[in-house]
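Support request, please re-run this one:
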Amino acid sequence: MELSQRRWARVGWWTLAFVVGLCVLATPWSFGSVHVGTIDAPRYAASNLELNLLPPYWHSLPAEDAARIERVAASTAYVPGRVLGTDALGRDVLARVLAGGIFSMAIGLSAAAVAVVIGTLWGSLAGFAGGRSDAILMRTVDVLYGLPSILLVVLLAVAVDGMVGRVGTKLSPGASQLVGLAVLLVAIGGTSWLTMSRVIRGQVLSLRAQPFMESCRAVGVPPLRQFRVHILPNLVGSMVVYATLTVPSAILSESFLSFLGIGVREPVPSWGNLASAGLSEVNLVTSRWWLLAAPCALIALTLVALNFIGDSLRARLDPTATRSRW
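Re-run finished. Output below.
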């Protein structure tokens, strides 16, 4: 039902606004500089090993942990917050989760933008050129479709990471992190454009068969102008829809790669490496489940919200979508 679809889309927008707003509004705090020993560090990276693995405020506090807090509070050492406790290195988990959201969503959006650009160019060229060029381009897409996409991302990330590692001694730690993030978003975006290219090709073929395009060809309008003026504006709806649906896939891929240890590296946080670190603290003896639950909950909320929004946009902007699917 269309009413139900609008309701779920509204839920998606509000949920996404909550998650994004929480991460963005907390940026001055989570990225803010704090004094640790003799250096200044961002709050998400600041650590105090004397206060590692503290429970959150709402969790019962063992006597030995209370003694640790009192001892450190009496000194001038850095005391991390305890809204979500601290991790194994004594870092504020809340600051790391919120900062990790910024990195994860930035990589997801950037990778989706890369996928949209590649998919639009590839599909447009195939549909507009036609003939042998169309066959070669789309057979390439078919071959890539036959390969596991996540395996391609892993292999590409590992290969490029190895090349970066060989010149890593020539790069500063910050530059090495930036190169790693760039490699990650290119690897994800470079394997997420296949569906986009097929959709765009189909749209271009459909538009080329329309009477107004036949009129353009009859009066001798140059091909580049035909595409720029008459075809590209009609592709914007599909580009927006599939970009929205690509973002959650890119965020999930980044989280999975970071979970495996080949994505975002410490000390930079992401939801994936935070979930990996939290999983290592879940055991039968002292289960600190909140370290795993916090990043996973934000991943789930973001992905569900984006899927609701994407489905709603597809129903509104994609002429081939079925409006009675809800």
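The chain is about 70% helix and 0% strand. The two ends are 5 Å apart (CA to CA).
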